[in-house]
Amino acid sequence: MNWSDQEVLVTGGTGSFGKKFIEIMLQEYRPKRLVIFSRDELKQHDMRSAGFDHSSLRYFLGDVRDAERLRRAFYGITVVIHAAALKQVPACEYNPFEAIQTNIIGGRNVIDAAIDRGVRHVLALSTDKAVNPVNLYGATKLCAEKVFVQANAYAGSQETRFSCARYGNVVGSRGSVIPVFLEQRKRGKITITDPRMTRFWLTLDQGVRFVIRSIEQMHGGEIFVPKIPSMRLLDLAEAVAPGCAVECIGIRAGEKLHEVLLSEDEARNAVELDDMYIIQPTHPWWKRANWVHGRELPQGFRYTSDTNEQWLTHEQLQELIDPKAVAASSVAV
User: Are 294 and 267 in contact (CB under 8 A)?
Assistant: First the structure.
């Protein structure tokens, strides 16, 4: 893919992922046009004021719930990264129909607009919570994955192709637990749900580059899963706030003790590369030769945060944490 010829749009482009994606695109790939599609005018203004004001950038106000607005925004677009979603687990539980409208119906609108406008590559962002979901957020993301994979059948002979990228918790995102720990550090006590809890972990930069690589390699229909390290929540708390007391408050509704990025059932249709797993669709339109060089996974394989072969050390955890945030928290103490 020659990115300099592409016209790229990011839904939810003012979020944590969108900002980092735009930054890397402008610095390294320089597409012909780069469109930030989001519903919050203030965040767009703040983003422009913060220096995101390149001549190739366009700010487009709109909501993924508005199908007609998406069709207008997708005119001339060749690549779409669908990052817009309601992601806060408690908010989705309390407002279930809103989560469904944005995460599922909004996804359908993106699919319809992409097919109608002839967008060539569409990649939707997903989460480990979509695997065996125990909360509504995860359930909506599971549905979104299903509709984006099957959207390739709707596209038919057109060149529009759809895939998904599924990964774990992101350091530096607005939903990260690190800001919570830094705030609690000021009071000298950290609260965690369970000392045994483990999570997959990657940085924003790693997430963006994985998405870019997935777009460049996608045939349409895959779910791309990166190989990323795990960490224990207790280790993270000790890295963020050494010397603070730790209180265990118990697992909350909608949480898991460990996360799963690739289930045993999915592994039967997945292949392994050096740095990722690729879940292949089981639909008749899928060509098995697409990833013939991928290695089959052993029977019973599952990719979970507690049985992962890669683990972040205490030093690596500290390196991932924003040193400015830690310094600010230390001053506050």
Answer: no
pTM for the complete prediction? 0.92
Residue 322's φ and ψ, nearest 5 degrees, are -60, 115
User: No. of H helices and E strands in the chain?
Assistant: 13, 17
CA distances from 46 to 30, 167, 295 (A): 22, 28, 46
Judged by DSSP in three states, 194 sits in coil
Catalytic residue chosen out of the listed positions 19, 20, 87, 129: 129
Per-residue pLDDT 10s for the chain (333 aa) are: 899 999 999 999 999 999 999 999 999 999 999 999 999 999 999 999 999 999 999 999 999 999 999 999 999 999 999 999 999 999 999 999 999 999 999 999 999 999 999 999 999 999 999 999 999 999 999 999 999 999 999 998 899 999 999 998 887 666 678 888 888 888 889 888 899 999 999 999 999 999 999 999 999 999 999 999 999 988 888 888 888 988 888 888 788 999 999 999 999 999 999 999 999 999 988 988 899 999 999 999 999 999 999 999 888 887 777 554 444 433 332
User: Quick one: tokens of 28?
Assistant: 């390294």
Q: Look up 129 and say whether it is catalytic.
A: yes
Give the largest CA-CA distance in the chain.
61
Query: Distance between CA atoms of 173 and 168, rounded to whole angstroms?
Result: 11
Best CATH choice for the domain 3-168+202-227+260-303 from the list 3.55.10.10, 3.40.50.720, 3.30.870.10, 3.30.420.40: 3.40.50.720
Beta strands in 94-211 (DSSP E): 121-127, 161-167, 169-171, 189-192, 198-203
